[in-house]
Structure formats: structure tokens, C-alpha cells
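Researcher: We're teaching a course module on how sequence relates to structure. For the next exercise, students receive a sequence and then see the predicted structure as C-alpha cells, so they can try to spot secondary structure elements on their own. Here is the exercise chain.
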Amino acid sequence: MHQPQSTGLSKVAAATRRTVAAGFAATLLMASVIPGADAAAAAPDNLESISVDDTANVLNEDKLRDAIERLEFNEPTKVAVYSRNGEYSDDINTKTLDFARSSRSEWISDQPEDYGDYWADGYFIITLSVEGQGDGQVGTYFGEDRKVSEGQMGSIHEAGYEDFNAGRWSDGVIAVAERGSKIMNRPWYQHPALGWTVGLGGLGVLGAVGITAAVRAHHRRRFSQALSEGTEHLTRVTLDLDTTELAARTLPAGAAHATVLASRFADFSAEYRVVFSERHQLETAAKKLRSRSAGVLRAKEFLSTAQTLDLTDDAIIDAASLYTRDAHWEAAWRRQIAPLLEDLNALPELTGNLAGDQASSEAVRASVAALNSFAAQARTQLQRLGDELNSESIQVDDALDALSDLRVQLSEKLDALANAQISTYATSPEEEEEMRTELIRSRDDATNQRPRAVGTILDVSYPAAMYWSVGSYSTGYGQAVSSVDSSRSSGGSSGVSQGYSGGGSFSGAGGSSHF
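Model: And here is the predicted structure for the students to work with:
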């Protein structure tokens, strides 16, 4: 029988076989490097709720609910669907906000530090504005813990365009929800680019199993880490419990800061008992809970509460030392001024990194000069406050008030620098809003995490957002620049319109596009 000569096609076939084999090996390798990888696929367990407000009367609610309930979200998510009849000129971002304020207040964050300016955590809101057969707008809106980039938002919207253009309104909303479920809070190992490493064809199923195992293993690691860190904080609280109770009893009743701390201590014992019991439940939790995002959330809440207790008892003990002028009062005062000194020491690096247009901007130079002048004055005042406390020529409350005023002044000067830098870098109101949103998010993230090793009286007594640190400012401005650069590089191809006309200070994540 005649044997054909080797051809380019046969070489391609051989290369394909090698690619498939490599993909198979890569998939096995991926599964092998995930500690404790499981083999079974996960059932959807991250959908917390669905609400449908079909004011346009174009949706099949039963179909929507059945389809969305089958989706697997990366983190616990509340899905809200809102349809309306509209016009091409409508700003549906603002229309959605208006509807939420009048009919769905739970969509808007009620956290005191958010001041009603953001969508509530955990929410994924889909707005469909129908303008005619196959015409309209789609909007997606996110809690700050679910927000996505502008490009990702555009991808989520595009998933529904074909169905929307054909008048298949319910199918379009389902497609948008499905794309959003995959993108929001997507771990690195679920990025589409990873698909190139898991082979071709039938290897997709094996890859999916590996991905599922990775998700579960990732959850277990996060659970264990939060439990371990929380236990460390709780152990310190337990060891200091007697000292804390004694210190709380010695706080002077008439002193302003002591009164605030005494009110914190009133809830301290009850919270300690609750978190102590929670630790035991988490330590004995089954593997199933440890592998789910709901378990990770519980462990993180345990860590947050234990950390708050740890910071609170530090502040109470130091306050008692200062008010009674015991042998440790000078060390206690050094801990109170440490956050401000840390910021003052970080200022030269912050201002020294300015270059190009930023360095040549008159507004930026003026803000930098104000910061440098403040730094010198603040160091002098801190020295004076320490001397006056030593000579007992100033009351503890007055010294703490003066320290608080210095930290507020620094925050205000960082605000001024932010305004100057944003005005210099941004080229449009939309870019300015994008940069401000990133800075606010970074500030909130840094303060909510409360990364300080020791709790100070001011940090425990006042809202976390009251003071802005130089470190979180630097991080936030870098993220703001990166966000704008990313939007510029995409050339605005996403077609997503963001912002809320007439929405006041509201700046929740989200946007809309025409289809």
C-alpha cells in the first residue's frame, strides 16, 4: 500500500497532539499544586437572594429566577433585577438610584462610614431600560466589594446585547447575570488566560474540576488564616483581661476621652464571650463549611471582632496609664503619637516621587509646600505636648484633643493634595470622578482593616475614616492613576457611561450602555 509522504498537515497534527498532551499534563500539575484539592464539582451556594422589579412588564420572572439560581457566584451575592420603560436620552444610572431611594432602600449601603453614597455590599443590580423593540439600555451596579473595571463592565453588558436586540428581554438579563457571576470577585486562577494552560477539547471538563478544587482549597486557606489571626488577637485579649478590667475601673468619670472608652468597655465583656464561643465553633467546623465562601465570611468576621477587642483593650490600658500618670504613661503617650510620626516620616517619599506635570503644577507645588510646612510644625507641637504632659501643665484630654487636631490637619492637607493631583492628571470630569472613587475606596479599605499593631485612644474613640494616613493615600493615588490609564488604553471602547447626574455625592460602582 502506498504510504503518503510527510506533509505540513501531518506536522500540524503532531503538534496538536503534543499540545493536547501538554495541556493534560498542565491540568494535572495545576491540580497537584493546589493543597487539599477536591475532585467533585461545587454546587451553587453563593446566591443569597434574587429580587425582580419588572415595572416595564417585559420579563418572565419564573424563568429569571430558575436561571439565576443555577449560577455559581465567586462570593455570596444578592442579585436585583429592575426593568423600566424609558427614552434614549434617559440617564438610567440616576433613574436606578432614584428607584432604589424610593422603593429599594436596601440596595444602598446603610453603613455609617458610607453616608449613603454607595451601593450595599454584596449587591449585583441589573437595570433594563426598554425604549422600543430591540432598543434600550442596560445598567449594572455593584456593592463596593463586588465592583469591576469599566472594561469588565462593558463585557458584562455585551453578553446580553444579542438577546436584547432581538427583544428577548429575559434571556438578555440572564446572559448579563451569567457573565457577571463569572467576572465579579474572580480569583486569579479563574482568569480566561488560564485556559491556554489546560489543553484543548475534552480537557475542559478536567480543567473545570481543577478550578473547582482550587476554589475550595483557596477558601480553606483563607478560613484557616483568618481563624489563626483572630485566635492570636483573642489570646492577647484573654491574657490582658484582668488588666483591662482594672484599667477600665480607674478611668476618671469626668474626662471626655475616658468616658468614650468606658462606653466601649461596657460592651467589651459581652462581645468577648460571643467571640470566644465563635472561635470554638470555627475550630470544630467541618471541611464543607471551611471550603465555602460563607465559612470564610464567618472566619473574617471573627477576625475583625477579635482584632477590635484587642485594639480596644490596648487603648483602655494606655488611657488609664495616662490619666493616672503611672510608671508606664510615657510609653503609652509614645504609642498615641506613633501613627502621626509614621505619617510625618513617610511624607518626604510621597512628595519626592512627584515628577513631570505633577511637579510643575502650581497647585501641586502649593499643596506639597503646605504639607512640608505642616510636618515641621507638627513635630514641634508633638515635642511641646510631651513636655507639657511631663510637667503636668496640660490635661490628658487637652493633649489628646491637640493630637487629634494635628491628625485632622494632615488629612485635610492630603485632601488638598489629592484635588491638585487629580486636576493635573485627569483630562475630563469622568476621569476626575474615577480617580476620586479609587482614592475613597483605598482610604476606606485601609481604615476598615485597621492594620495598626496597637490600638490608640483616638483610633478606638473616633470613626476610622476621620484620619487619612500617608500610606493609604499613596496606595490610593497609585490605584487611581492605574484605573484611568487602563480606561485610556481601552479607548473608551466599552461604551459604558458612569456617574449619577443629580445624585448628589453618590458614587456607587456601576454604569450603563446602549444596545
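Model: If you want an answer key for the exercise: Residues 275 and 302 are 7 Å apart (CA to CA). The chain has 17 helices and five strands.
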